[in-house]
């Protein structure tokens, strides 16, 4: 029997089992796909039974401890159905699309929350998640609070001459950094500093010559990325790093990448924290909370 046929039979068996078991459930069982969606549910205090999540859900800890159904961009119907869900609440980039259609075909309610790739999406997601979880009043309050924080952030003056390099991770001796059209680029603009590699698109590896040419003032990266690199000493030993102002002065800010770049309810406060950390590192004082 071919592997493809076995896989189809396995999926069919799971579908039948889900229909038999799922119909007897008294309470809705939710699967959450997307770290930003999970954080929004937690911030709203939504009273729903979440039984599983995807690999990108790292916060809050109690949700991160739930079984994972895989990576949200590479889901399988078998994995999701194995936790017997009634509903799936998914970030817009969840998929493949065919898998979500398979789930709907057997009666699972699948709600996909599409959001733009900018800070305005944070408030939009809060209101949408609040509607799906019947937390409209809490959603309105949270949306108002987040909007006020983002407005205060937008009112802060820029920090002229401050050029940051955001390192996603490294590949060998070559750091992979954020260019434009990335969440990191949006975050740097939001806190009033320039992206030293804003003239390139997406995330790309950069060589020593590019580091020296773009001359970043400081480096921003996550603790996970720094640990994977081998620690701060390893960072400053990367080829070309000592040719930059950041490398010579060893200016580094370590961030929580999911909180900052996930564009969830923690992001506005994390942006303020980043701005404060930059000012402390450079010896300026312009942040007012």
UniProtKB/TrEMBL annotation:
Domain of life the protein comes from: Bacteria
Gene3D superfamilies registered for this protein in UniProt: Nitrogenase molybdenum iron protein domain
Matches recorded under PROSITE patterns: FE_B12_PBP
One Pfam assignment: Peripla_BP_2
All copies of domain Fe/B12 periplasmic-binding, residue ranges: 29-286
Transmembrane regions: none
PANTHER family: HEMIN-BINDING PERIPLASMIC PROTEIN HMUT, VITAMIN B12-BINDING PROTEIN
Protein name, per record: ABC transporter substrate-binding protein
């Amino acid at each position: 029997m071919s592997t493809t046929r076995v896989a189809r039979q396995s999926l069919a068996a799971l579908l039948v089992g889900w229909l038999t078991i799922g119909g007897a459930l008294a309470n809705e069982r939710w699967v959450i796909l997307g770290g930003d969606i999970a954080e929004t549910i937690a911030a709203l205090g939504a009273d729903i039974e979440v039984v599983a999540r995807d690999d990108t859900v790292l916060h809050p800890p109690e949700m991160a401890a739930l079984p994972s159904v895989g990576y949200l961009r590479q889901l399988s119907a078998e994995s999701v159905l194995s936790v017997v869900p009634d509903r799936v609440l998914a970030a817009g980039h969840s998929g493949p699309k065919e898998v979500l259609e398979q789930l709907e075909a057997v009666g699972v309610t699948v709600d996909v929350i599409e959001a733009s790739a900018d800070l305005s999406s944070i408030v939009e997601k809060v209101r949408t998640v609040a509607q799906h979880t019947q937390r409209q009043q809490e959603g309105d309050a949270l949306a108002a609070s987040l909007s006020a924080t983002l407005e205060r952030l937008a009112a802060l003056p820029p920090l002229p001459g401050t050029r940051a390099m955001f390192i996603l991770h490294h590949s060998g001796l070559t750091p992979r950094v954020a260019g434009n059209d990335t969440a990191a680029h949006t975050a740097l603009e939001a806190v009033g500093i320039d992206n030293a590699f804003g003239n390139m698109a997406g995330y790309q590896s950069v060589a020593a010559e590019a580091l020296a040419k773009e001359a970043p003032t400081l480096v921003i990266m996550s603790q996970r990325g720094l640990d994977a690199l081998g620690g701060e000493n390893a960072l400053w030993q990367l080829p070309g790093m000592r040719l930059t102002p950041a490398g010579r002065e060893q200016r580094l800010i370590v961030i929580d990448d999911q909180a900052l770049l996930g564009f969830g309810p923690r992001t506005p406060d994390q942006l303020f924290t980043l701005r404060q950390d930059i000012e402390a590192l450079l010896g300026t004082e312009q942040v007012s909370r």
